[in-house]
Amino acid sequence: MPELITYGIVLGSIIALGAIGLTLVYGIIRFANFAHGDLMSAGAYVALFVVTDFLAWVGIPDTNFGPFSFGWRMLIAFPISMVAVACVAIIFDRILYRKLRSKGSGAVIFAMSSLGAAFILRMVILIVWGADSLFYRPGMLRPAMDLPLGIKIRPDQVLIVIIAFSLIIFLHLFLQSTKMGKAMRATADNMQLALVSGIDTERIIIWTWGIGGALAAAGGILYGIDVQLQPSMGWNFLIPLFAAAILGTIGNIYGALLGGLIIGVAQQVSTAFLMPTYKPAVAFIIMIIILLVRPRGIFGGKSA
Amino acid sequence: MELGGFIAYLVSLAIMASIYAVFCLGLNIQWGYTGLFNIGIAGFFCVGAYTSAMLTTPKPTGIYAQYVNQIFGLNLPFVVGLLGAAAVCGIIGFLIGIPTLKLREDYLAIATLGIAETFRLIFNNEHWLANGPRGLMGLPQPLQGIVSAKHYNYIYLIVVVIIMLFIYLLIERAIRSPWGRVLRAIREDEISASMSGKDIFHFKMQSLIFGSMVMGVGGALYAHYTKSISPDVFTPLYGTFIIWVMLMAGGSGNNKGAILGAYVIWGIWIGTSFMTDLLPYTLKARAPYIRFLLIGILLEIILIYRPQGMLGEEKRVSKLLEE
């Protein structure tokens, strides 16, 4: 059981990276972005492209990097992929959602448009990389370390948690102390008030997509390192992401972090009783319970 | 292709398009008239198909039972299968509605998405329920034996079209009644509808259940057409996404548009399969993805440039009003 909880924290920190982006978009741009999971897949696959094709072409050797299952190339690929997916998210906003905003479409039309965007992203991945599972470094032995309480954990997994939490702390500092971060929080709180205070909401929206996309990419890559790359991985993350965001109150990034950890731990612990394929269903059941008992989430007091 | 083969091909195309039209009509009740965002159509598709399959096939016996697990098999007629599928899907719609219909509109979307994925997982993993990933085979077809098996599709096309028209007339009647006008009022402005003394939750619930029942019938019609079903058929792509594109293309809030959209999009979908035959060999295996990419782009274009679809909504709300 302690081992499953540990794995749950690893999975939970990946979910949290996605859920924080989702909850930011939900809170500031105010619609359910069904393409968020597929942004995670996009991040994982862009990193794969950089590691196996681009850096090989440039001529950077993929020598081992400490005790981890990936090489030096990943260190370069990670930020490149985050920036690339941030751009993808912003481009989707420019060509799709901005047009819908200027037409004054309802929130559900945005959600439907994002559903279309999700399928477009997944189809591009399937066309370029095919449907098979892929690895950053196929055939790599991945030895586990022994921790107290009989926990076996791979060095990769320790690093995943460290990277995820570093990114979240970084986001926290950004939102608390920069001007843009404060403007984003103000917009999330009350868009009309932000507008009359002279905040350029279009710029806020671009920043929101950029941050959301970059965090999603990070989550996707970390999942690819931990497990494998699959075109449907992002879609399968969608329900855990929404469950985490709703559990932690929509718009609240600390709630999304906590929600992500709870969902991750619940999913892993459930494998002690259920088939592992039921993990998405576990997230779904938790979400339904939250909707019935406390629809505004753990941190939600005032009306949503 | 010789003429007979070509007509047979058109018939099979028309059967699938008509089955999709039934789903579009069901979705039109929920989305077109009430504004309920259901993106788990595949779940109702799946449950409708499995319910009808288990109601109409006999429980496997003898050596056959070693290979096919099925929790029950009642060997009842086709019509009972359709009604049973509608009833079970209606109950599921009701259960989803309880936690979600009082909340913001996108919660329903997330919940229906979850339920669709969950049903697919259950049918895939629980072998005792309906034979797991191998699915069920040998479903009976109505009016089998009137014509030779080679020409049976003509009969089935007539059956499907009659059921589709019946559902069409039923919805048209319902939507032109005071009940239908309340649904539209809720879609346009919930607060003013509730200030007029309408119980929003109950009307939304009725619309959700009605639409889900129609989708259940669609699932059953599909199951008896292909005669064999397995969980991997009911993917979000074939089971949900394409139906949304059909309704948005045809015109949500218009039942004729829902049917038209199903025929046009299914025609485009099948038509593009001929186009991809021209692709180089290396890309051929990935041709379906290219076609779905085009369908996805089509949806985005419709949402931005023509959200009312081909036909748009009919503004006339009562047969008593002048045109």
Explain what the structure shows.
The complex is a heterodimer of chains A (304) and B (323). Chain A is mainly α and 304 residues long. Chain A has one domain (2-293): Orthogonal Bundle (ABC transporter involved in vitamin B12 uptake, BtuC), CATH 1.10.3470. Chain A is 72% helix and 2% strand. Chain A has a two-stranded antiparallel ribbon. In chain A, strand 1 (145-147) and strand 2 (151-153) form a beta hairpin. In chain A, helix 2 runs parallel beside helix 4 (107-129), helix 6 crosses helix 8 and helix 9 (233-247) runs parallel beside helix 11. Chain A starts with a helix and ends in an 11-residue tail after the last helix. The mean pLDDT of chain A is 89. Chain B is an all-alpha fold. Chain B has a domain at 11-235. Chain B is 70% helix and 0% strand. Chain B has 14 helices and no strands. The mean pLDDT of chain B is 88.
SSE arrangement:
The complex is a heterodimer of chains A (304) and B (323).
Chain A lengths: L1 H27 L7 H23 L13 H32 L3 H23 L15 E3 L3 E3 L1 H23 L1 H11 L1 H6 L4 H26 L6 H15 L5 H18 L8 H15 L11
Antiparallel strand pairs in A: 1-2
Helix pairs in contact in A: 1-5, 1-8, 1-9, 1-10, 2-3, 2-4, 2-8, 2-9, 3-4, 3-8, 5-6, 5-8, 6-8, 9-10, 9-11, 10-11
Chain B lengths: L2 H31 L7 H16 L7 H4 L10 H23 L4 H21 L1 H4 L21 H24 L2 H11 L1 H6 L4 H27 L9 H15 L4 H21 L5 H4 L2 H19 L18
